[in-house]
Amino acid sequence: MRWLLCCLLPFFAMARPSVLFVNPSLISDPFFMQVEAVARIAASQLDVDLTIINGDANRLLQQQKLTEYLQKHKPDYAIVQPYTGAGVQLMELLAQYPVKIVTLEHMWQPEEAPKVGRPGALYPNWLAELYFDNVEASQQLTLALQQACPAADQLIGINGMINFETDRRAEGVYQAMRQRGGTVHQIVNGKWDRQLAAEQSLQLLRRYPASRLIWTASDWMALGVLDALGPTAAGQYCIGGFDWIPEAQKAIEQGKLQASAGGHFTMAAFALVLIYDHVHGKLPQPLPDVPLLQLDILTRENLPAYQPLLRAGQWQQIDFRQFSRTHNPALPHYNFSVHTALKQLKPRNETGQ
C-alpha cells in the first residue's frame, strides 16, 4: 500500500490545473480573437487545461453564462474581466464556488473599489488583478499623434462605452494636450462601434473643422474614421486608437493610421503565468498594487521591430515560462509586455537561429 501511495502521489501532484477564461466580448471581436489565440498558446506551454466561454459583450449574459458553467463544472481557476458597475455582483457570484480568481483590467468604479477591496482581502479566492495604466497609454498615444502632426494643436476624440476604463483613457488625452498646450474640442462615446464612429467623426469635423488630431479608444473605431474620411485622411489627419488589431496594423504600415496603443492582447496569457506560479507555490501574496502589464505604442517607424509578434501564431516562439517566478525566482517583479517578449527573440536572431 505504501508503495502504491508513493507511486500515485506524484501523479496527483502533477495533475493539470483547469482554468476557465471568460472572454467578455463577442466571439467575432477581432481584438479578443487575438487574446484567445495567445492564451491558448500559453496554456499549452504551461500545461494548463484551458476552457473559454464568451460573455457576448453584455454583463447580464456574462453573469448568466458564468453561473451556468460553474453549476456544471469545477474549474480550479477563473480569469474574468469585470464589467464596470457589475463588479461586486461578479465577485459575489464567484465567492459561492471553490474557484481561484484572476481579474483582468482595473474596471471598478470609485464606489465599487472599497466594496471589492484588493485581491485576497475581502475575497480570499481572489489571487491577483492584472491591469495596465490606461491614462499613461492614452497619454503616449496622444503624444505619438502630436509627433506625427507637429503643426496640429486641435483634437477631437471618440471613446468607447461610458465606464471607468474609457474615463481613464480620456483623462490621458486631456493630460497630454494640456502638457503641449493643445485644445481638446470634444470626446464623444462611440460605443466601440465602427459605423457609429464613422458618423461621429464627420459630425465632429463639421463642428470643429480645424481639428487635425483624431484620437479613438479602439482601432476598430479608428478604422471607422478612415471609412468616413476615405483617401482624404492621409496627409491631412493624424488618427490613432488602441488594440493593434491586424487591419489597423496594415493601415499603420500604409500610413493611413499614425499610431496604436496595445499589446494587451497578451493579458489572458500573462494571467495564466500568474496561475502557473500559484500552482507551483511561487505567486507572491499579496501582489503589489501596480500595473503588471505595460502597453506599447505602435507606429510606422517601429512596426518592423514588432512584426515578429504581431500575429497570434507567432507567439509559439515565446517561452511563457520565462515570465514566471517558478523558472526565474530572482525576478524582482513581473514584467509583462510585448516589448519584453521580443527580447527572447533577439539572441536567436543574433545567432542566426
Please provide a written account of the structure.
There is one protein chain. It contains 13 helices and 11 strands. Mean pLDDT is 92; it is low at 7-13. It has helices at 2-13, 30-45, 59-72, 87-94, 113-116, 134-148, 164-180, 194-207, 219-229, 246-253, 267-279, 303-306, 338-350, and strands spanning 18-23, 49-54, 77-80, 100-104, 126-130, 154-159, 183-189, 213-216, 238-242, 259-262, 296-298. With 353 residues, it is of the alpha/beta class. Helix 6 (134-148) crosses helix 7 (164-180) and helix 8 packs across helix 9 (219-229). The protein has 2 domains: 15-131 and 265-346, Response regulator (Rossmann fold, 3-Layer(aba) Sandwich), CATH 3.40.50.2300; 135-242, Response regulator (Rossmann fold), CATH 3.40.50.2300. Strand 3, helix 4 (87-94) and strand 4 form a beta-alpha-beta unit. The strands form 2 sheets. The protein has a 6-stranded mixed sheet with strand order 7-6-8-9-10-11, with helices on both faces. A 5-stranded parallel sheet has the order 2-1-3-4-5, sandwiched between helices. Helices cover 42% and strands 16% of the residues.
